[in-house]
Design goal:
The structure holds two protein chains of two kinds.
Chain A lengths: L2 H22 L3 H21 L3 H25 L15 H21 L14 H9 L3 H22 L6
Chain B lengths: L8 H18 L8 H23 L4 E2 L4 E2 L2 H28 L3 H20 L3 H19 L6 H32 L4 H10 L6 H18 L7 H8 L2 H26 L4 H24 L4 H22 L1 H28 L16 H4 L1 H15 L5 H15 L3 H27 L13 H19 L2 H12 L3
Antiparallel strand pairs in B: 1-2
Helix pairs in contact in B: 1-2, 1-4, 2-3, 2-4, 3-4, 3-10, 3-13, 3-18, 3-19, 4-5, 4-10, 5-6, 5-10, 6-8, 6-9, 8-10, 9-10, 9-12, 10-12, 10-13, 11-12, 11-17, 12-13, 12-16, 12-17, 13-15, 13-16, 13-18, 13-19, 15-17, 15-18, 16-17, 16-18
The chains are: A mainly alpha, B mainly alpha.
Chain lengths: 166, 481
């Protein structure tokens, strides 16, 4: 087993274990902290695929932003740890059907896809290519994304502003 | 790379109007009249409509590597969205002041939503479509919750946001799976892939198609995914409800028609049967539940579910027969529904919306014009000739019969009969009962009257002289080829 395979297995193990902890932990704070491992594991897989930019963004946004946001939300919410409701949804049977369907689909996909062995992954920087794509082929979605953000920002201000009473 | 910006013209026009309204709002002191903002919005929408007509005369072309196609189909829908936005703003002018909502942001968000819808209808790329959808959805979530002093409005916004976020998740997963299978988000390339390799599709391509379908069904409020509709429609400010039930629904159907009905049509066999069930369930449940309502606003919410069911008939019927009735029915539905909600808006007293059947009692004697208009909108929604709703339903059911879906047509007609019960109840209340709310006079709310008059003209015109609009719908759908 080469070093890279060993590292990959390690990352995969980290990912699966922490994902399981997110799902099965009864304490929501443990769940939130376990997300850290999941996000880091995903970033590791991106690095293995030679997607350096995506890996960096994954760390910046998910670990640096979203995870911190979740932790803040959990800790600032009063008595969330005392609540006896766990994150189990009411309808177990419908959930089971959906999960079985999804798992079937994924397994079928893995089985029937003609996997080609990856060519030697070249670890070249992808950032420049992504930047070019944003400004050439995907110029319109790139600009539209700023429109979505503008609408969301105005909306957030409207909804959270204190009403001035006359 | 040369960039062709001409097809973006109508969307950019509306966007610039939205920005101008937002910025101009900042320079008006508190307590001064903000009527000029509504005026700017209407002028901007008028210019956008003029540009649509200008582009209809010219050559329709794609832009940005064909990820944006402003063909006749997109222009047809752009006009519906502009019309809906303009009528919503007209009927909201007095309402917004009365309820103490922020005028500037209200108009600006309506315009932002309109930009998103135009982008959705013109999107020829799943990414562009998704961004248009999000622009629209976010603006409408906020509009729903804008009546801050009313708890129901905030509740509706929260429900709408959570359900909408779910629908977004389905759509995004669907898009990702389709991209994984076909290697492209561009609809032209996806459709080329489907035609190139018939029936050798991976399982997850079909899974992705179904996820898209579920996302769309959420957005139009089709039956297993309709639970949010009544609460959200009832809680939202009345003009916003009208905007949602017309423009948001039309935008979702536009994208549905272009993406699922047209570009992904090779996958048809997989979803015709589920769609058939959804269409029947949507019609029947919507009409049955509408009978039991006491509030006209809630009744119209269920009626809007039922109409989503009628609109699903042309989608089940397929590309060959379904295009013309789908587009024409959406046009007819826009006029009559916007009109009904405009009348409902005029019934608001102070910050209390008077939308029960008992509030409409005796309206025929107090406000003859409003009552007459409401009566005609109700008759049109029920499908009485010679109004727009009749012509629309006629072509929808005709397409079902011609394509061999006789059972769909029969169930549709039975449902129309069922719907007469609750639509006529409004008329009975207005003309045969007494008491109830007063409604606004022309002096109190002139703009609502203008909105009602425009909607009424459209409803009657499409009912009596549908030929032009039919021809236009046919050519619009034909331009998808």
């Amino acid at each position: 087993m080469s070093v890279s395979t060993a590292v990959f297995n390690l990352i995969a193990l980290l990912l699966v274990v922490s994902a399981a902890m997110v799902a099965f932990s009864r304490n929501i704070i443990y769940s939130a902290f376990s997300l850290l491992g999941t996000f880091m594991g995903v970033a590791g897989i991106y690095i293995f695929l030679g997607a350096d930019f995506v890996a960096a963004v994954q760390l910046l946004i998910y670990v640096g932003g979203i995870l911190v946001l979740i932790l803040f939300a959990v800790m600032l919410t009063h008595r969330i740890t005392d609540v006896t409701i766990t994150n189990r949804a009411a309808g177990r049977i419908p959930a089971l059907i959906v999960v079985v369907g999804l798992v079937y689909m994924l397994i079928q996909t893995v089985r029937t896809t003609p996997w080609a062995a990856a060519k030697q992954v070249t670890f070249a920087s992808t950032t420049a290519t992504i930047g070019d794509a944003f400004l050439y082929d995907y110029l319109l979605p790139f600009e539209l994304a700023s429109l979505v953000l503008l609408a969301a920002m105005i909306g957030a201000v409207v909804l959270s502003r204190k009403e001035i009473k006359e | 790379m040369d960039v062709n910006l001409v097809p973006l013209l109508p969307a950019v026009q509306v966007l610039v109007t939205a920005l101008v309204v937002t910025l101009r709002d900042l320079f008006i002191k508190d307590g001064e009249s903000r009527g000029v903002l509504a005026f700017y919005s209407l002028v901007g929408l008028g210019l956008a409509a003029a540009e649509v007509f200008f582009l209809l005369g010219g050559r329709q072309e794609g832009a940005f590597n064909d990820s944006y196609m402003l063909d006749r189909f997109a222009l047809f829908f752009a006009l519906i969205f502009i019309l809906a936005a303009a009528l919503t703003i007209l009927s909201a002018i007095d309402y917004v002041r009365q309820t103490g909502m922020r005028e500037g942001e209200f108009y600006a968000l309506i315009l932002f939503a309109t930009v998103g819808m135009i982008v959705m209808a013109a999107a020829n790329d799943l990414m562009v479509f998704f961004l248009g959808l999000e622009t629209m959805s976010i603006a409408v979530y906020v509009l729903t919750g804008m009546w801050r002093s009313n708890g129901r409005s905030s509740e509706a916004a929260m429900k709408y946001f959570l359900m909408g976020a779910f629908a977004t998740g389905f759509l995004l997963y669907g898009i990702a799976l389709i991209y994984g299978a076909t290697g492209s988000t561009n609809l032209a390339q996806i459709s080329a892939y489907l035609l190139d390799q018939p029936s050798e599709w991976p399982v997850y391509l079909i899974g992705g198609g179904f996820l898209l379908l579920i996302g769309f069904a959420f957005k139009v409020g089709a039956v297993p995914f309709h639970f949010w509709v009544p609460d959200v429609y009832e809680g939202a400010p009345t003009p916003v409800t009208g905007f949602m039930s017309v423009a948001v629904k039309a935008a979702a159907f536009a994208a549905w028609a272009r993406i699922l009905l047209y570009k992904l049509s090779p996958l048809d066999n997989d979803w015709v049967f589920p769609l058939w069930i959804i269409a029947i369930a949507t019609m029947t449940l919507g009409n049955l539940l509408a009978i039991t309502q006491h509030s006209i606003k809630r009744m119209l919410a269920y009626s809007s579910i039922a109409h989503a069911g009628y609109l699903l008939i042309p989608i089940v019927v397929g590309v060959e027969w379904g295009g013309l009735p789908l587009l024409f029915y959406l046009l007819a539905y826009s006029f009559m529904t916007l009109g009904a909600f405009a009348v409902l808006t005029s019934m608001t007293e102070g910050d209390e919306s008077k939308d029960g059947y008992s509030d409409f009692a005796g309206l025929g004697f107090k406000r003859p014009f409003l009552a007459l208009a409401m009566a005609l909108f109700m008759l049109s929604l029920a499908g009485f000739p010679p109004l727009a709703g009749f012509t629309g339903k006629f072509y929808v059911f005709r397409s079902a019969v011609l394509s061999g879906h006789l059972n769909l047509a029969i169930i549709g007609v039975l449902n129309s009969l069922l719907s007469v019960i609750f639509y006529l109840r409004v008329i009975v209340a207005m003309y045969m009962e007494e008491g109830g709310a007063a409604g606004k006079s022309f002096r109190q709310a002139p703009f609502v009257y203008i909105a009602v008059a425009i909607a009424l003209l459209g409803t009657i015109y499409l009912g009596i002289l549908p030929a032009d609009a039919l021809d236009w719908s046919r050519r619009a759908f034909g331009s998808l080829e």
